[in-house]
Write a structure and sequence with these properties.
It is a single chain. This protein is α/β, with parallel strands linked by helices. 40% of the residues lie in helices and 16% in strands. The strands form three sheets. Strands 1, 2, 3, 4, 5, 6, 9, 10 and 11 form a nine-stranded mixed β-sheet that branches.
Length: 457
């Protein structure tokens, strides 16, 4: 490994590209039958492709703080340092361009971003949201509150919900531009991100730099730039947000097509970004890392999205993400790895001491390990061959899947394979004990007790 890393001695810059909601199984280099990602595939074929990379969180607020700080979610209190802080202390110029509005918010799901301060360590922390952008986001959120409230109030009264939906559906079909969700897009797209990020690179290319770009195009509302029937696009996207359970299979297929279009659009933007780096002579001394915070589901397990508007899930369509490192050597790695290891690996590549509070290790350690992933109500422990999901709600049973013979996670074998279930439960508890840092000690001790009780059932 030392010999391999010696080839990276002139690689001074780290460019981290993350694509919100990008599933690993939609990349050509991962076997997807459609050619959606020729540029990402090229980078994968020229670099290191991790075929089994797992996100530690089911949504942005669980995943992004986790891979920036190498800390398992969920988070309470003040966390340790981020990779941006580490690199800044080592004379790196640091920047991020990330138009995801939730990184500015204090949302009610264990993550208190006011304490986490994701901007720490970044010389430039640009969410690219103007006052007009933020006003549009707030207007859209307020506009849909009555529908969300009605769904919550009458969730057990199907007759009332159906009556509300019939009126809603007629109005939405007739006047989609009035009732539609945020489709005229007040979030910057991939081309906007490229423009801002490349302008920053031009100004800072003489320095060693860490640049993190987070593309939002693949995230709903899937405002496909290629789909000509805008009226239908408006209708389907808004229905997806307000009445997802009313979508037909055909409509879900169309939404999935919009998702694929957005992947194509983002891949093209990544290609344009890399080409501009070459023209600025920045590619030869830069390492490019491509990944995602999580994926998105399309009714594979009875839900859509990734937990924002729907139930939270930890199936592979959500937690199996792309991970590519371009600029070191060529290799396909089939060992299971986790995004928790991303920050420690950057430290290793740049020969920087890894902080003691990083819970991950190098991606290049040749060990077979289980990976913990979290949502609000579930915790999973994934091995290459099996995945255990412990559901923390009393009305939900635990799940165990044979990933080799049932990669789609359709057949829950938890009740029928007690030996395997206990082995993975023990592995989960052991991993939690080993991973969590001191300030999480009390919470994790309580969680271990809770899981231990489940083992005895």
């Amino acid at each position: 490994m030392d010999e391999e890393f010696s080839r990276a001695e002139n690689k001074k810059n780290i460019i981290l590209i993350t694509v919100d909601c990008l599933r690993a199984d939609h990349l050509g280099c991962m076997g997807y039958e459609k050619s959606l990602t020729p540029m990402i595939d090229k980078l994968a074929n020229e670099g290191i492709l991790f075929e089994n990379a797992i996100s530690n969180g089911y949504n942005t607020l669980y995943s992004i703080p986790s891979f920036l700080t190498s800390t398992l979610p969920p988070f309470k209190g003040i966390m340790g340092c981020s990779i941006a802080e580490i690199l800044k202390k080592n004379q790196y110029t640091t920047a991020t361009f990330n138009p995801n509005p939730v990184i500015l918010m204090n949302l009610p799901n264990d993550v208190k971003l006011g304490k986490l301060r994701l901007d720490k360590g970044f010389d430039t922390f640009d969410v690219m949201l103007s006052g007009k952008n933020m006003a549009g986001i707030m207007k859209d959120s307020l506009f849909h509150i009555p529908i969300k409230s009605a769904r919550a109030i009458f969730k057990n009264k199907n007759g009332i919900i159906n009556s509300i939906y019939k009126i809603y559906d007629i109005a939405l079909k007739q006047w989609p531009s009035i009732f539609s969700s945020k489709i005229d897009t007040y979030l910057p797209n991939a081309e906007d991100l490229n423009k801002a990020a490349l302008n920053w690179v031009r100004k800072n290319k003489e320095n060693n730099f860490f640049l993190w770009i987070h593309y939002m195009d693949v995230h709903e509302p899937y405002a496909s730039p290629y789909y000509e029937n805008k009226k239908e696009l408006l209708y389907l996207i808004t229905k997806y947000r307000d009445f997802p359970n009313k979508l037909t299979n055909k409509e879900i297929e169309k939404l999935h097509g919009f998702y694929e279009d957005e992947i194509k659009f983002t891949d093209k933007a990544i290609g344009a970004f890399v080409e501009q780096l070459k023209q600025m002579n920045c590619n030869e001394n830069s390492i490019i890392i491509i990944s995602a915070d999580h994926g998105d589901s399309f009714n594979e397990h009875g839900a859509l999205g990734h937990g924002t508007y729907f139930v939270d899930q930890l199936y592979d369509e959500i937690i199996h993400v792309p991970l590519i490192i371009h600029g070191l050597w060529k290799e396909r790695i089939d060992r299971q790895v986790e995004l928790l290891d991303l920050a420690p690996t950057i430290c290793e590549i740049l020969d920087i001491q890894k902080p003691s509070d990083f819970e991950g290790n190098s991606l290049f350690e040749k060990t077979n390990k289980g990976v913990i992933s979290r949502s609000r109500f579930s915790i999973s422990f994934r091995m290459l061959d099996y995945k255990l999901i412990v559901n923390l709600k009393d009305d939900m049973e635990n799940e165990l899947y044979d990933l080799k013979n049932d990669p789609g996670e359709k057949n829950n074998i938890y009740k029928y394979n007690k030996d395997i279930s206990r082995r993975l439960e023990s592995g989960m508890i052991s991993t939690l004990k080993n991973k969590k840092s001191k300030h999480e000690k009390t919470r994790i001790k309580n969680k271990i007790k809770e899981l231990s009780k489940k083992q005895k059932i």
